[in-house]
Design a protein that fits this description.
Blueprint (H helix, E strand, L loop, with lengths): L13 H12 L6 H11 L6
Length: 48
């Protein structure tokens, strides 16, 4: 199992690099930012 974590400030190219890695190596993508924005849109309280 291969786990990669891309760190960087907004606009640094993390998403661009993630798309390249996904296409090149057939990896799955999990974006914590996307998950958090989705939960905020759904107005779900944070679960402990």
């Amino acid at each position: 199992m291969l786990n990669l974590v891309l760190f960087g400030p907004p606009g640094a190219g993390k998403g661009t690099q993630a798309e390249f890695l996904i296409k090149s190596f057939g990896l799955d993508h999990l974006s914590t930012g996307d998950l958090l924005r989705s939960e905020i849109r759904r107005q779900n309280p944070t679960r402990p």
